[in-house]
Amino acid sequence: MSAPGSSDLVIVANRLPVDRVETSNGTPGWRRSPGGLVTAIEPVMRANEGTWIGWPGGTEQDLKPFEDDGMDLVPMTMTDREIENFYEGFANGTLWPLYHDLVAKPEFHREWWDSYVAVNKRFAERAAEYASEDATVWVHDYQMQLVPQMLRELRPDLRIGFYLHIPFPPAELFQQLPWRRQILEGLLGADLVGFQLPGAAANFVRLVRQRVGHKTHRELIYLPDGRTVRAGAFPISIDAAGFEELSRSEPVAQRAAEIREALGSPRKVFLGIDRLDYTKGIYARLRAFSELIADGHFDVEDAVFVQVAVPSREQVEQYRILRDEIDRLVGRINGDLGRIGRPAISYLHSSYPREEMAALYRMADIMVVTPYRDGMNLVAKEYVACRFENDGALVLSEFAGAADELRQAWLINPYDINGMKAALLEAYQADGRELGRRMRAMRRTISQHDVAAWADSFMAELAAVRPTHGKAVRPARRS
Length: 479
Ligand code: F6P
Hints:
This protein is an alpha/beta fold. It has two domains: 7-236 and 452-465, Glycogen Phosphorylase B (Rossmann fold), CATH 3.40.50; 240-448, Rossmann fold (3-Layer(aba) Sandwich). Helices cover 44% and strands 20% of the residues. Helix 10 (282-294) crosses helix 14. The chain starts with 6 loop residues before the first strand and ends in a 14-residue tail after the last helix. 6-O-phosphono-beta-D-fructofuranose (F6P) binds next to strand 1.
């Protein structure tokens, strides 16, 4: 267990890789938290015996640092009020919709901002406490944007990296934020600020020039104190080999066959897997699918849709509204188009372990990923990784970061329902040759750019930006 002052690599993220839960016998236990962030950071954490600082969910107050599955974890506590104002409020009621192209309307409340400042300060103080002399601290995501500057003030010796997992908006949207300057200055505490796509890095540099007034040249920002900050794109990825191995395994193959049979062995299965979030375009995709049935292109004996919606941020009003809307839509579609024992849509409001996800990917013919805006979307990459037989079709929104790399998917504009219907139908009708051509190319891309390569390139760049300080961080890739 790492002691204060001893860690050469400290990860700061809103969430720990595990959540505090109640087990079936009523005692408290730990469960792996949802989302791609956790899987992405794990390899570099393990290679460096790092310390991870984050919130385990809930309001339990006196949790001590502990080790889980070989990782040193430092739990941060949050009060009910902070969950309301910091997590549900500023992080997910202000920043989340603002950074996702205003898909929902962001709310601006001063008490939410005050809570964001207070929580970021506590995380920064804890990171300062655990980091060794000249250590590297890697701060993650939109919940923690003030941490880099706060940490730099406490510990100027540290090498600090920041990575944003979600989109970073264009200046025209970002400048609505009453605290825009503070956020930009917060991020500038880092030596390297990483984004998913080059466009996001360019948005950030432009905003820094316009709003903070620092000199910039391409990806570099020159600060008056002599420091240089670099902004760059590091598209995140998945453990492609791990997913493929899982998908090839016998239990997963068996489970895939079982699911298909339980669905009534239709000719084709469409699949959607998302956190239940309004940015994901779940409503529009289910409508498009149902219209294809209503228009007579196929019926429920030919094709069904499996939609997994992972519960998320259930206390936030926009998420509750969305859940009701989807519940109603699924009920209506199944009522209108389903037959006995054969609903058009199998809707599951639940989260599943990796093995079950791999079985779903393996059994589905057409994966449908239609966000209005998404930083990357790792589900799209996981599907590709699991299709080792070079079959299966991916229908992908051009507004997901993954569309930059997975060019051979059927790319769609999720606002264009007719366009989406046409792509779903094309993917449904595509022959083996067409599917193979597209899938082989996408599989080449993701096997070359996996999550270990992502972490290593970020760390290498961070060391290059701040070469004279900091201890070396070991690569995440196993040789
Ligand atoms: O990157 C998006 C993100 O907010 C991650 O930080 C997190 O892993 C995931 O979505 C799940 O969100 P939440 O922590 O709000 O449940």
